[in-house]
Amino acid sequence: MINHIVLNGHLIAERIKTALRQELARLSSPPTLGILYFQSPASEVYKAAQLQQAASLGIRTVEEPVPVSAPQAQVEGIIQRWNDEPTIHGIFVHQPMPPQIDPQRVSAAIDPRKDIEGIHPQNSARRFFAKARIGSCTALAVMELIESTGVDLAGKEAVVVGHSEIVGRPVSMLLLDKLATTTICHLGTDKAGRLEEHVRRAEILVVAVGRPQLIKGAWIKPGAIVIDVGINLVKGRVVGDVEFEAAKKRAAFISPVPGGVGPVTVMMVMKNTIEAYKLQRDSR
Questions:
Q1: pLDDT for 223
Q2: Integer Rg of the chain from CA
Q3: What digits encode the pLDDT tens for the residues 194-240?
Q4: CATH class of 137-262
Q5: SS3 content of the chain, % helix, strand, coil (to 5)
Q6: CB 4 within 8 Å of CB 253
Q7: Residue 34 neighbours by CB distance under 10 Å
Q8: Domain 29-114's class?
Q9: Is a pLDDT exceeding 80 seen at residue 284?
Q10: pTM assigned to the model
Q11: Helix (H) or strand (E) holding 37
């Protein structure tokens, strides 16, 4: 029987936080993070977590709530105002965005030096060439969890389920940087009936789809590292995209939902805010 380890995102986040405190102490003044969010229960919870961690580190914050019915021009107007404001060092726009908002236009509107999610086309290109100083907070959190296992990723079979611009695609690039043999699965894979086939051979499995318990525990390769990014509300409980109880009997390392990727993602927002501050300082 495999001895499994449940990866504690809170402990990993605290370790990162300790390093960030030391980095902040070397700055001449604290950075400021602008948070633009659409007024929904999910955004309120995430925003509260961001504000709590920012306050505990001494990072300043500016909030801009907008209704879910807000037009594109209103969102881009806020971003442009923050782009022009030198005292705001980072801009974070909550996702998912309402259907009337074009996320690619939003990404392109953010000053790339203030782009906390690394989604501006310039930052996406830098990520492709492994030159990015700022990247997707969730993708970076996934890698922190994987690297906390101490497993050498070179040559490992990595499977990423989901190909979104803020998780699946950037995670796949980061895994490639570690020389993992990386496969991306998506809706087409599922429709072709081949999702299970790919998951079963994954030594590193990252799932970010938003479908509760899509990945069955019986599919997990014995000894795999399983990172579950999904957050789903089912009968009043928050669950991931992986059948956790069954999967943890087969995995060597597995992240829980909640308490896995989430706390580390919030800390990566803080880390990227500090990096954005330094980018602007260095470009003066």
A1: 97
A2: 19
A3: 999 999 999 999 999 999 999 999 999 999 999 999 999 898 899 99
A4: alpha beta
A5: 45, 15, 40
A6: yes
A7: 26
A8: alpha beta
A9: no
A10: 0.95
A11: strand 32-38
Is 29-114's fold the same as 137-262's?
A: yes
Structural domain spans, the chain: 29-114, 137-262
Closest of 145, 144, 257, 159 to residue 210, by C-alpha: 257
Both structure tokens of 259: 């308490």
Yes or no: say if 21 and 267 are a contact pair by the CB < 8 Å rule: no
> Which one-letter DSSP state was computed for residue 149?
T
- Residue 44, CA distances (Å) to 20, 50, 63, 145 in order: 25, 10, 11, 25
Model confidence over 77-88: pLDDT tens digits?
999 999 999 999
Which residue in 187, 197, 235, 237 sits closest to 219, CA to CA? Answer: 197
End-to-end CA distance of the chain: 57
Of 102, 89, 105, 22, the residue nearest 57 (C-alpha): 22
Note the pLDDT of residue 27: 95
Q: How far apart are CA 133 and CA 148, in angstroms?
A: 21
Unique residue bearing structure tokens 């989430």:
262
Long-range contacts of 45-51 (CB under 8 A, 24+ apart): 46/94, 46/266, 47/94, 49/262, 49/263, 49/266, 50/92, 50/266, 50/269
What is the pLDDT at residue 1? 59
- Mean of the pLDDT values across residues 139-162? 98
Q: pLDDT at position 197, please?
A: 98
